[in-house]
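Standup notes
- DV: blocked on the single-chain target, sequence here:
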Amino acid sequence: MLEEGLRALTTGAIASRAHISKKTLYNLFEDKNAMIETIVLSFMDAELAAWDRILDSDLPPMERVHASLRYVADAVPRMHDLLLAQLQRFDPGLWKKIDARRMRRLKRLRGLMVELQETGELRSDVAPDRWLLLLMTLVHAALQPRVLSESGFTLPELVETLIQLFYEGLLSERGRAHESAASAPPDRPSMQEAP
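- DV (later): unblocked, structure below
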């Protein structure tokens, strides 16, 4: 599906790639739609497991937000926009399942943002729901091969700018101080303190 698109996906191609007969394939799945749903949801679950590990980690909330942004920026280009558009037309029910998986993670990210606003580390004047909508829209619009090739920017350059705008732009003064302290090298003893 990722290599050739949804239209090229046939039961014969699936059986051939899986090294099984079409009969065996139909013993496992009711029809082609069931096969595609299983393939797509398995792919999505594998992709989103990395995000779950970030959200479930013991990292401080600020670091989980930052790591989540890096994950989103890195993961979106792996799921071609063309394929996503095809999936929306192919099976709206499947698209709802995909969107529900994505929205569960975004709600958790929103929860981290609210927590950080309450501690004063993120600006309180930015609504988390609006921020997430803008982030996802920008990611889908800019981080795709066509846009990258036409703009001349590299993916790492755009990801870094995205993180600067959507992460650093949210930090309050307290959050900036926290970030500076977290990224500063450990104090070294002065020459007078050295043995």
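- Follow-up: The first helix runs from residue 11 to 18.
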